[in-house]
Amino acid sequence: EIVLTQSPGTLSLSPGERATLSCRASQSVSSSYLAWYQQKPGQAPRLLIYGASTRATGIPDRFSGSGSATDFTLTISRLEPEDFAVYYCQQYGTSPITFGGGTKVEIK
Amino acid sequence: EVQLLESGGGLVQPGGSLRLSCAASGFTFSNYAMNWVRQAPGKGLEWVSGISSSGGTTYDADSVKGRFTLSRDNSINTLFLQMNSLRVEDTAVYYCVKPAALAAIGVVRNAFDIWGQGTMVTVSS
């Protein structure tokens, strides 16, 4: 199975700053079938990005995804207070689908 | 409004059984493959099982193969997860999930745009 490694484990930033989250795959992700989710405490995950770079419905344009093959990035251009959460990447190009371990974005 | 509502979680002893249900509304349930994803307390996400739109094909993670059975009843828009021989390591919140229409390339190879609120399963003596 494809192992996804997210870094850093925790990112401490202030509102208004730029956040850059990394997701590295143990082997190439087929056709960039990579998604990003946001999860807040006590809530279910929310789909942000699919196909590596396509924003899901209703997702603000401060969220952007990029990358291919084994290296993917989620960028939040200017952190809003509601963006402090845990972020997961997921590959769905190869069965079984797998998730990364998550990056927590916390208020500095 | 598109909605998934799980039920059936609870406390069970190791070796016991539980049946989870997921009631879907707001979309044509019979058109979509459906899946379960779980999250152990304080941990990340793990895909568990998936079922085709007709119910004719199922897929399971190795960690639950032979113990969990996924089924669906399209006449009542409901998904079921029968969990047998439960282990302590099955303790988790179980989410019922719907694939995003533009990010669905197979029964289980999907990104998920709709998640239920989750139901907690605790396996403990």
Layout of SSEs?
The complex is a heterodimer of chains A (108) and B (125).
Chain A: E1 4-7, E2 10-13, E3 19-25, E4 34-39, E5 46-50, E6 54-55, E7 63-68, E8 71-76, E9 86-91, E10 98-99, E11 103-107
Parallel strand pairs in A: 2-11
Antiparallel strand pairs in A: 1-3, 3-8, 4-5, 4-9, 5-6, 7-8, 9-10, 9-11
Chain B: E1 3-7, E2 10-12, E3 18-25, E4 34-39, E5 45-51, E6 58-60, E7 68-73, E8 78-83, E9 92-104, E10 110-115, E11 119-123
Parallel strand pairs in B: 2-11
Antiparallel strand pairs in B: 1-3, 3-8, 4-5, 4-9, 5-6, 7-8, 9-10, 9-11
How would you briefly describe this protein structure?
The complex is a heterodimer of chains A (108) and B (125). With 108 residues, chain A is mostly beta strands.
What does this molecule look like?
The complex is a heterodimer of chains A (108) and B (125). In chain A, the strands form two sheets. In chain A, strands 2, 4, 5, 6, 9, 10 and 11 form a seven-stranded mixed β-sheet that branches. A four-stranded antiparallel β-sheet of chain A has the order 1-3-8-7, with no helix packed on it. The model of chain A has no long low-confidence stretch (mean pLDDT 97). Chain A has no helices and eleven strands. In chain A, 0% of the residues lie in helices and 49% in strands. Chain A has strands at residues 4-7, 10-13, 19-25, 34-39, 46-50, 54-55, 63-68, 71-76, 86-91, 98-99, 103-107. Chain B is an all-beta fold. Chain B has no helices and eleven strands. Chain B has strands at 3-7, 10-12, 18-25, 34-39, 45-51, 58-60, 68-73, 78-83, 92-104, 110-115, 119-123. The N and C termini of chain B lie far apart (39 Å). The A-B interface holds A 33, 35, 37, 44-47, 50-51, 54, 56-57, 88, 90, 92-102 and B 44-47, 59, 61-62, 95, 100, 102-103, 105-106, 108-113, 115-118.
